[in-house]
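## retry 2 of 3
previous attempt timed out at serialization; input unchanged, resubmitting
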Amino acid sequence: MRVLEFAAVAAALTLAEAAHAQSTGSPAPPTPPPVTAPEMRGPDDRVTDFNRLRNDVDGRRAGPTRSARPVPASPEDVIPGSEVRDSKGVVIGTVLTVGMGFAVVASPGGKVEVEFASFAKNNKGLLINMPKAKFDAIVSGANKTQN
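## retry succeeded, writing output
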């Protein structure tokens, strides 16, 4: 019987020691941050993005804008007699005539054809993305070859 008591006490001490070791042991290792999956985009998302961009471009109307930032000008914005400004807002000339896909801009130094894609507009009117000095150099060079 003594052996049985001894075995019971030994088992109780062993289990108590194991339980005690679990509660006062070293802290658990930190858990890694959750891994986020990359954004999965399918063909439907690309079509939606394309349609949104197309609608933004189609939604632009001809005429004046209140924006101080340049926005692309539509061909309907380029009308004869309109002032054309350089990238800094200095007047460089006026639209003389409008053709298919281009406009003739007349300045004191001469005239030159400018594609519609080169025009932008803001709250001051039509713009071309180049300084007046460069535009004047192009105009004088174009007029020398024509004479």
